[in-house]
Amino acid sequence: MSTNFTPRPGTDGCFVTTHWSVVLSARDPASPRSAESLESLCRTYWYPLYAYVRRLGHSPADAEDLTQGFFARLLEKDYLKAAAPAKGRFRTFLLTALKRFMANEWDRQHASKRGGFANLVPLDQELAESRFAADTVHDLPPDVLFDRHWAMTLLQTTMARLQEEYVTTGRATLFEYLRPCLARDESALPYTDIAARLNLTEAAVKLDVDRLRARYRDVLRQQIAETVTSPEEIEQEIRELFSAFGP
Fold first, then answer.
1. 66-136-124 Cα angle (round to 5)
2. Reported pTM
3. Cα dihedral 140, 129, 97, 36 sign
4. How many domains does the chain have?
């Protein structure tokens, strides 16, 4: 996915033209933009699918095979041709397509290709299993677990993009001090301490924190904009995703 945050002409300043609906509208199999955009989104959001499959009871090896087999079929665009009924949110499209793949294709393909799927999307199984083991205590239903990890991935990618902005503009140290303030983490230093360490005034630190929080919200909305088909869906998607964390 692009890390260019400059609003495109004719947009509301947030909803960019790199969101996944472009992938669906690019039906030409020869279109590199379609394949590259879809693969980029899949590389970012593969873990929620993997966790969903594991929660259904599949072994780690089978879950990896199934996820790679699903991506192989997805990136061949067979599913894109029938994606219109599920079009809207990219997460809804992916989960619907995965369920269809599991019902119609998995048994046949797995019987003949156990461990033989191409690694089209890099899956870190050790990391995935570590994350999955941490989730089992919650005993969440597969669909809820999928939504929760989708939301967590959004937050992680948002933070990574935000950090990249600060690093490329020479503010890496400032970001490291301010990052805990985003969520009012207990590890966050008081503004007075941050000011003393960075040779700033306390008022300047407070302003920097306010700016960081505002930018975080903007980048998060841009992230979500890439996975829905209209600006009107962004707020609803935020509410629905974060409801997966529970009350």
1. 45
2. 0.79
3. positive
4. 1
